[in-house]
Design a protein that fits this description.
By secondary structure, the chain is mainly α. The protein has helices at about 1-60, 65-80.
Amino acid sequence: MDKEKTSFAKYKRREKTTIRLKSCYDCRKCKKIVHIEKVNEELIVMYQEIGKYISKKTEEASYGSEFVDNVAEFFYKTILS
């Protein structure tokens, strides 16, 4: 009988530890997701600002100034090189 109680107590402790570890894993997973969402949010804001800048400069550029070609070349050299 004592052996059964001891085995059951060990099982319960192991079960609590497993739940605690799973909870900790879920917490880390949630934190990782929150960080990923924050990075995505910042990227979206950055892309919007780049779009606004290009749109504004396009309106200011005169016909034949090759502004769009220059911007495309800049991004090609900067990002793809």
